[in-house]
DNA sequence: GCGGATCAC
DNA sequence: CATGGTGATCCGC
């Protein structure tokens, strides 16, 4: 008799049961096999790092210690200068709605509050976007395929996504945020980062924790949603703290240097934003489990890790967002915080998963669809593309990409397709049947605004791609069947 | 510049 | 039987 999942909390026995169900369901699937291959590549990477580590000398370490000492001094100087007009540290808050999509449905239809429920993933190949907290006790998580979730919990209710509803709810929540910081930033519908310093200056009777309690209470009163929050000296710490007492809780991280170091020192490395499953595994292989381990082993890590990662680790182990006190950017680099270079998207993409197929005609039709979608997005964003990347995924889940830089003025569906179709043909030719494919997409990057030099809306200079480029977005004269024949003639090894 | 990988949401 | 889509960044050629 299996353990009753209704009693599942965070207990070890229940967790083991959940893991066993997931393992039994996943075992043998193509997805699982691809995961194993990725795991093997990570193991190779760790082995190479260990071989490198074995060659590290005392003088390498001594040199690293010097470099680290200088970097640490620079970081501390920069952090101490990041204070408000009165010389006090800023009070940053990160606020995060709990199980946002699922909770919005619960507010509208309270019958979902007491039963396991998840949102998204109603299609055949669906994965869940959010699960309510009842469902989470069964081990159900976001990004879990629906069919595995049903093995964990057969009575699970799965609702369709309703973004219109989520946008309405998010807009209400944002009116609350704006009362506490009119300049708050949101990276997604369900979270926001606020600078509470001005608000607190106007309300000296409130502690930061009291103000945030009141903000979360206002969110609940005005939307029925619960939120969790973190309060700290910078946004990174606030974000980490917002996760600590979820759901419907908050945490204040000490603002003094030693308090910050104690907080990050006790933190498992996986909690730092930017350290995912793979980096966690790599660090684990070197006995680096916590922020304190990072700090203690910094000289050694410095000698074996790549520049971006080691600098990131140095910063976060001091409780400081990465990139702090870096040397000034080279002249000409467009790194204007708050300016439009910082907010401009660097790429736009469209991709789609479908029932695995080896049919070139189908893949061509799908690629046309993705190009049409991407063309619409480019036009709406008022940009042209300099680089196009074709992406395709095998039935085995292995992913391939091919990219090519263009003259910088590509946007219509037809232009996009003429650039990426050869990439599709080449990849398919390299992988002869019976290779089957399950996803295909196209990404535009190196975006150039319509009003950039030499560029005005409707008049594009220097466009010469294929034979038909009158600026018409609808030019799908080339028939799939004809392409298919052409490919067949060209296909095949010598 | 290109292709593979990693990460967040 | 069966595992998403979008955007960003980094690393090693």
TrEMBL record:
Name this polypeptide is given: DNA polymerase kappa
Query: What Pfam family does this protein match (any one)?
Result: IMS_C
Extent of Low complexity compositional bias: 326-341
Q: What is its EC number?
A: 2.7.7.7
PANTHER family per record: DNA POLYMERASE KAPPA, DNA REPAIR POLYMERASE UMUC / TRANSFERASE FAMILY MEMBER
Reaction(s) catalysed by this chain, per the record, are: DNA(n) + a 2'-deoxyribonucleoside 5'-triphosphate = DNA(n+1) + diphosphate
Provide the Gene Ontology terms for cellular component.
nucleus
Q: Which residues form the UmuC domain?
A: 92-276
Keyword annotations from UniProtKB, A to Z: DNA damage, DNA repair, DNA replication, DNA-directed DNA polymerase, Magnesium, Metal-binding, Nucleotidyltransferase, Transferase
Question: What are the Basic and acidic residues biased-composition ranges?
Answer: 471-488
Q: What class of enzyme is it?
A: transferase
The protein's organism comes out as Caulochytrium protostelioides
Top-level taxon of the source organism:
Eukaryota
Gene Ontology molecular function: any one: damaged DNA binding
Where are the residues of the annotated region Disordered?
A: 326-349, 462-494
Biological processes, Gene Ontology terms? DNA repair; DNA replication; error-free translesion synthesis; error-prone translesion synthesis
């Amino acid at each position: 008799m299996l353990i009753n999942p209704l009693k599942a909390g965070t207990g070890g026995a229940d967790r083991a049961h959940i893991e066993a169900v997931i393992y039994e369901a996943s075992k043998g699937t193509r997805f699982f096999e691809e995961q194993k291959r990725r795991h093997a590549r990570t193991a190779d990477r760790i082995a190479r790092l260990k071989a490198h580590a074995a060659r590290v000398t005392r003088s390498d370490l001594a040199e690293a210690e010097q470099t680290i000492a200088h970097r640490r001094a620079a970081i501390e100087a920069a952090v101490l200068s990041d204070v408000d007009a009165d010389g006090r540290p800023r009070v940053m808050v990160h606020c995060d709605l709990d199980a946002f999509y699922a909770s919005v449905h619960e507010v509208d239809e309270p019958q979902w509050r007491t039963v396991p429920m998840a949102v998204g993933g109603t299609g055949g190949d669906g994965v869940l976007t959010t699960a309510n907290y009842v469902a989470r006790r069964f081990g159900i998580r976001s990004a879990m395929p629906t069919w595995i979730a049903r093995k964990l919990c057969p009575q699970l209710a799965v609702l369709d996504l309703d973004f219109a509803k989520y946008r309405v709810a998010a807009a209400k929540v944002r009116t609350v945020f704006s009362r506490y910081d009119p300049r708050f930033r949101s990276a997604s519908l369900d979270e926001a980062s606020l600078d509470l310093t001005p608000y607190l200056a106007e309300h000296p009777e409130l502690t930061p924790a009291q103000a945030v309690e009141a903000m979360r209470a206002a969110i609940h009163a005005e939307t029925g949603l619960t939120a969790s929050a973190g309060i700290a000296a910078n946004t990174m710490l606030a974000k980490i703290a917002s996760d600590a007492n979820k759901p419907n809780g908050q945490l204040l991280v000490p603002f003094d240097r030693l308090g910050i170091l104690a907080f990050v020192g006790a933190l498992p490395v996986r909690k730092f934003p930017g350290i995912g499953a793979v980096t966690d595994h790599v660090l684990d292989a070197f006995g680096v489990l916590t922020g304190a381990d990072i700090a203690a082993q910094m000289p050694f890590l410095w000698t074996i890790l790549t520049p971006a990662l080691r600098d990131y680790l140095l910063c976060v182990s001091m409780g400081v967002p990465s990139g702090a006190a870096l040397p000034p950017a080279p002249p000409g680099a467009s790194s204007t915080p708050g300016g439009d270079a910082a907010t401009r998207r660097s790429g736009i993409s469209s991709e789609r998963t479908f029932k695995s197929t080896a049919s070139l005609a189908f893949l061509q039709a799908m690629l046309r669809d993705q190009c049409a979608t991407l063309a619409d997005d480019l036009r709406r964003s008022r940009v042209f593309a300099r680089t196009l990347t074709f992406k395709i995924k095998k039935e085995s889940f292995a992913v391939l990409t091919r990219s090519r830089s263009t003259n910088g003025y590509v946007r219509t569906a037809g232009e996009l397709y003429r650039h990426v179709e050869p990439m599709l043909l080449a990849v398919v030719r390299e992988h002869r049947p019976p290779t089957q494919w399950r996803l295909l997409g196209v990404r535009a990057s190196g975006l150039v605004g319509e009003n950039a030099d030499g560029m005005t809306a409707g008049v594009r200079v220097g466009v010469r791609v294929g034979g038909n480029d009158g600026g018409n977005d609808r030019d799908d004269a080339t028939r799939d069947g004809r392409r298919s024949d052409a490919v067949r003639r060209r296909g095949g090894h010598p």
